[in-house]
Amino acid sequence: MDIKPIRTKSDYRAALKQIDALMSARAGTPEGERLDVLATLLEAYEAKNFPVDLPDPVEAIKFRMEQANLSPKDLVPMIGQLNRVYEVLNRKRPLTLKMIWRLHRELGIPAESLIKQERRAA
């Protein structure tokens, strides 16, 4: 297996081409193993060179609500009374640790997103 580290943009583009050519490779074959190694190298390069910032907590909640077709009323068991839900969604009230835990547990929102410092509206 002739694989080298991905250090430059040209290495990155070459690895993408190789991965594209190997996408139909079966697991357990030499081609499948090559695909696995290249994908791991590519993932490491992308994490270092194209980091993705976590959304702020309110955006993470709104995204999950949209995904699951939830209304603010559906958040009452996790956040509290409906007026409190609206205060959180409108950035008038910060999340408490208890809210964060419940949102993470019940909706599967990554805790890292929920504990990130919120952007304050002007």
Helical residues, percent? 55-70%
Multimeric status of the protein: single chain
Structural class: mainly alpha
Whole-number mean pLDDT? 91
Distance between the termini: 56 Å
Brief synopsis:
With 122 residues, this protein is mainly α.
Task: Describe what you observe in this structure.
This protein is mainly α. Helices cover 60% and strands 0% of the residues. The mean pLDDT is 91.
Helices and strands, with pairings:
Elements: H1 9-22, H2 30-49, H3 57-68, H4 76-79, H5 82-89, H6 97-107, H7 111-114
Considering the chains and any ligands shown, give keywords for the structure.
122 residues; mainly alpha
